[in-house]
Every structure is written in structure tokens, then in C-alpha cells.
Amino acid sequence: MSTQVTMSIDLIYQALYEALNLSDASLQIWMTFTFGLIAAAHLAGDRVGGRTYRLVAGLYALYAATLVVRYFSAAYQILYYQGLLLERGFEPWPVPKPVGVLIGSGTFVLMVGGTIGTLWFVRNIRKEQADRAAQIA
Asked: Among 25, 50, 33, which residue's Cα sits nearest to residue 114?
């Protein structure tokens, strides 16, 4: 027995802005972790063992993937609640749809490309440190 309850406009707007906050928070957390990993690799790259490097890089990659999925979840919610508002004759905000698509896809490219770039940077730092250590020895 399924009963369908209609959401009020206020509740739709509230849910929409919560989804926007979730997408922003995902990006902010990703940026914080990315900066932290880059700084740690730069400052302590020569003192980090291979196993620790692989553990940290693997955990970072896993968490970054989780944040990308979280971002997609929030984006889906945003589109869903926008659709509900449009069905009822309300305009979610006065921003053209292509701008929203550009922001969303740009953020996705930033998160995925930035994660790959960060892992590449950390790998190169580790490799350079190992090459320097081999030359000294």
C-alpha cells in the first residue's frame, strides 16, 4: 500500500539548497585533502617509505572517488528538485541551464583531473626522491 505525499514548495526549495550545500561541501573537502596530500608529499616525500606511499595514495584515490560519487548524488538531487519546481510553474533561480551544466561538468572534470594530477605529482615526487637517494648512495 503506497501513499504519495506531495512536497510543499518550501520543502522543495529547502531540499534543493541542501543538495547545493552538499555539492559545495564535497568540492571543499576534496580540495582540502588534495592540498594536504600535495603539501605532505612535497615536505616529507623523502621520509615516506614505499608501502606508506602506496597506502596514502590508495586511500586518497578511494576517498576522492567517494567524493566524486557524492558530488554526482548531490547533482542528481539538484536536477530532481529543479524539475519538481519547474513542473509546478516555479523557476528555481534566474540562471540559464547551460551555466549550471557548465558548472557541474567543470567541477567533475576538476575533481577527476585534479585527483589524477595529484596522484601523478605524488608519484613523481616519490620517484625523484628515490632517484636522488640512489645517486647519493
From this structure: 33
Cell representation of residue 18:
541542501
Q: Which residues make Cβ contacts (< 8 Å) with residue 18, sequence separation at least 6?
A: none
Contact 133, 45 (CB under 8 A): no
The string of pLDDT tens digits covering residues 65-121 is 999 999 999 989 988 888 888 888 887 777 777 888 888 899 999 999 999 999 999
The closest alpha carbon to 57, from 129, 115, 127, 130, belongs to 115
Whole-prediction pTM: 0.81
Which residue from 136, 119, 128, 132 is spatially nearest to 38, judged by alpha carbons? 119
Can you tell me the distance from the alpha carbon of 49 to that of 55, in angstroms, rounded to the nearest whole number?
Answer: 10
Q: Over 46-115, what HEC string results?
A: HHCCHHHHHHHHHHHHHHHHHHHHHHHHHHHHHHHHHHHHHHCCCCCCCCCHHHHHHHHHHHHHHHHHHH
- Report pLDDT digits (tens) over 6-58: 888 888 889 888 998 999 999 999 999 999 999 988 888 777 788 888 899 99
